């Protein structure tokens, strides 16, 4: 069965007619850098039309009509999309970009080209815009595209088999381009293709001043039994941008631009779980630990995939300094990736997690919480306190806040029951949550109150009630530390030299 998960509602059928001829803006005036009012897609067509201010990031012609890539001002970038003129309110004045000193304006039919963008600085990529929080995931569309892919013939890992151990070898493919092949020297001036390769190989996107990365380049991926709409740009090779769908093997993460190529790959791919050591298995959930230095191809492909849904710092090529923890759900076919987090082998800032992702088709089911809980279990084993790498995305902050709240409130209620006193340092020592995160969480709960010249911790009835509600919701999915078979890996300074 194939399901499609969309990050935003499908286009509203019967959207208003083209309003050319009305006084106001014409297509020719809408250029990169302009701000216009764009109709927001609605779930139900009977809902009233709503327009939001949006910046034009790119312009193209599609079926002989202009299309505009828009970013809704103050909303998360994952809502950016291509729109036709019929969704732009051309009766309203447009905000024009500031004039360039040399007097050249933007070329409306030029793709995201630095020279055509004037006066608008690179947007922040913290992803803290408010509007994306209500993102709709879960729209399902059954398609039969590759339902006849042969059933995997390799023996799947079943819960009764022992934990999987790493072979120490990287996955290999038949030389498919774009699967982590090293790239040649780069020219001083970049074509779009070279620019994408540069983004792919030069590390963090936040360090990139590229305009190309502002525009989403892939529409959809096919992953396991799901078709998933993408959220952000990811530096897959340039030729992938022309494909409607990118096909990814859910086990080894090799990617292809046609269903036929994936089908051929699946006939010979015997991999049924991520590489690395399986360090946790409880019920149908497993975690695999992967060393970026040993499994470069897999980890680079993982970073490429996760960039589609993560818009803050993500590395593609320089995976050596990281460990990757992949969370899978097992069935008779193998271990299906649900999400992952990465972690620096050595973090001078005390981070215990670099990037975290739940694949969109599995979001809002408590898996993000499991990933976060697991990262703290590792910190507890290390005897360290940890915190997620900043900046957090909007969804990252929501998930962390929810986890911190639950863990801290649980501990406070426990100590109250035992009539014990507890300080913020004690909470930190017992949970491995950093004191700054504890303080922020307690402040957000209004739990720090002045009392006789001191500050005391006090939980309101509302906070306690919502804690019980959330706990009930999560009771079936928890990390049981007794199933963690892991000793913290130690790296010599020689092994960390590449950092
Ligand atoms: N809207 C509102 N609340 C949300 C949403 C949402 N779209 N998504 C998660 N939450 C909240 C929920 O309230 C939930 O709390 P609750 O259980 O108390 O209700 C909490 O976050 C956790 O929800 P989960 O279902 O456990 O999380 P999920 O599996 O959806 O994963 C994650 C969360 C990993 C942040 C996911 O949204 C994701 O992958 N997003 C894209 C990548 C990203 O932004 N990663 C974080 C970057 S920051 C960093 O890497 C350090
Ligand atoms: Zn494969």
UniProtKB/TrEMBL annotation:
It comes from Rhizophagus irregularis (strain DAOM 197198w) (Glomus intraradices). InterPro entries: Acyl_CoA_acyltransferase, Chromo-like_dom_sf, Chromo/chromo_shadow_dom, HAT_MYST-type, MYST_HAT, Tudor-knot, WH-like_DNA-bd_sf, Zf-MYST. This is histone acetyltransferase. It catalyses: L-lysyl-[protein] + acetyl-CoA = N(6)-acetyl-L-lysyl-[protein] + CoA + H(+); L-lysyl-[histone] + acetyl-CoA = N(6)-acetyl-L-lysyl-[histone] + CoA + H(+); (2E)-butenoyl-CoA + L-lysyl-[protein] = N(6)-(2E)-butenoyl-L-lysyl-[protein] + CoA + H(+); 2-hydroxyisobutanoyl-CoA + L-lysyl-[protein] = N(6)-(2-hydroxyisobutanoyl)-L-lysyl-[protein] + CoA + H(+). GO terms for cellular component: chromatin; nucleus; protein-containing complex. Its EC number is 2.3.1.48. It holds the Pfam family Tudor-knot. Keywords: Acetylation, Activator, Acyltransferase, Chromatin regulator, DNA damage, DNA repair, Metal-binding, Nucleus, Transcription, Transcription regulation, Transferase, Zinc, Zinc-finger. Residues 1-24, 96-141 are annotated as: Disordered. Catalytic component of the NuA4 histone acetyltransferase (HAT) complex which is involved in epigenetic transcriptional activation of selected genes principally by acetylation of nucleosomal histones H4, H3, H2B, H2A and H2A variant H2A.Z. Acetylates histone H4 to form H4K5ac, H4K8ac, H4K12ac and H4K16ac, histone H3 to form H3K14ac, and histone H2A to form H2AK4ac and H2AK7ac. The NuA4 complex is involved in the DNA damage response and is required for chromosome segregation. The NuA4 complex plays a direct role in repair of DNA double-strand breaks (DSBs) through homologous recombination. Residues 213-488 form the MYST-type HAT domain. Belongs to the MYST (SAS/MOZ) family.
